[in-house]
Amino acid sequence: MSKVRVRFAPSPTGSTHIGTARTALFNWLYARKTGGAFVLRIEDTDKERNTQAALDELLSGLKWLGMNWDEGPEVGGDYGPYFQSQRGDFYKEYLQKLLDAGRAYEQDGAIFFKLEGERYTEYDDYHKAEIEKVRAEPVVIDDLIRGKVTRREERDFVIVRSNGDPSFHFVNVVDDIAMEITHVLRGEDHLSNTSKHVELFKAFGVKPPVYAHMPMILKDPKLGKGKMSKRDRGALIEEYQQRDFLPEAVVNFIALLGWSPKDDQEVLSIEELIERFEVSDLQKAGARFDEKKMSHINFEHMKRLPIERYLAPAKSALSKAGLIDDATDDAYLTQVLTLCQEKINSFEDLPAFSAYFFTEAYSVDEKTDKKMRKRADAGERLGEAIPALEALPEWRADSIESALQGLADEKELKVFAWFPLLRFGVSGVGGGPDLLPMLETLGQKKVVARLKKFQASL
Fold first, then answer.
1. What is the pLDDT of residues 420-449, one digit of tens each?
2. Are residues 297 and 223 in the same domain?
3. Measured between alpha carbons, how far is 213 from 284 in angstroms, rounded to an integer?
4. Does residue 316 share a domain with residue 297?
């Protein structure tokens, strides 16, 4: 078997959809799995719709996800993508081959590809005119996901528009030939195009690549039915970047939209995805987007991060929320984040979860506030705990625990009689990181001051 060569050929007309990223990912995984080449080719012949902003976002998203491509024109010592808009002379050369062979002709300023087969006319109700059709041989597509699919082209089709721009079908095939693409993995919405492409390959005397048409990504059931659109929450790669999701978690989640390893393991590293990926395991049925699953996978990847890697995205989220700045002590920040790491699903939740570590202007949970104030012993318990904590010569979790246990023994109560009041008094919430390490991290001065303030408000 010749070396696998796959391509990702997007048209940059807007924000990068999760389905576009999945197409890139499955091609990238297949190339890495087989030791093949992953080619990035920008289909930008539609000058009216393609934008530089969309291209910049696309390239930024690919790099953020870690999907590096293997070849292209050199740009500053690195590879840039191929741009179809820069390959006009090349397309003219291939067009001339079809014209010379009698497989293309001009009509109304456009150039059409001429199908082989018996020609006849048929009245078309939509166009209100006689339309020439062709009884061409059926095209059998041996699809890696869908099996054998038979389609038949019935009409000649445009390969160069009347404005001189080559059509998608034409440049797609010419570039696949020139770049020696062996496998084409793309969305099932392109299946209807494939018979045209096969006809063009035949006209050039070239064997078509192997095709695999992937299922559509469907909306989260909570958002309705049908295909996921760019307007749906979670549909855009840029959104995950802005929400400080981990790129490796996004890659993991996207990979599970239409594919799964045979042991049904869901949380996978990039290396594990490459090792386990098989095109034959791609499903035919639509892949259902699930935001809860995305959050869960992100959480699992966050838990596994070494703290030194956890710091960068955490700092980004806290800085955007205005909770930290360049003057924030890194040692203190590391302590706080170590406590938070196993408690939050995403970095976008981190500011709200940890605000009381960084500011006195933190939110107070009203429900927990009412619950604490209803306790008849709230003032008494705080009156016992504050002096005991204030008197500690060393502020460590174990010494805090000993002081509270001493109170419990003295009052013949369980130590948890103080815990909820202490937690709420210093954080304004009823849950969070383990209490004793949290108190140690906040520091004696801050803890005692907040508890006194809470006591005074009762």
1. 999 999 999 999 999 999 999 999 999 999
2. yes
3. 8
4. no
Long-range contacts of residues 29-33, Cβ cutoff 8 Å, at least 24 apart: 29/255, 29/273, 29/274, 29/277, 30/4, 30/6, 30/183, 30/185, 30/277, 30/279, 31/4, 31/5, 31/6, 31/70, 32/274, 33/274, 33/275, 33/277, 33/278
The H-or-E segment that residue 82 falls in is strand 82-83
Name the phi and psi angles at 265, rounded to 5. Answer: -65, 135
The pTM of the full predicted model, rounded to 2 decimals, is 0.89
Residues belonging to the chain? 458
Residue 338 belongs to domain spanning: 305-355
Any residues with CB less than 8 A from the CB of 283 and at least 6 apart, and which?
Answer: 145, 215, 258, 259, 260
Q: Which pLDDT belongs to residue 3?
A: 93
Integer CA distances (angstroms), 327 to 319, 331, 334, 357, 431, in order = 11, 12, 14, 15, 28
State the Cα–Cα distance between residues 61 and 161, nearest whole angstrom.
32
Catalytic center residues: 230
- 441, two tokens: 């991290």
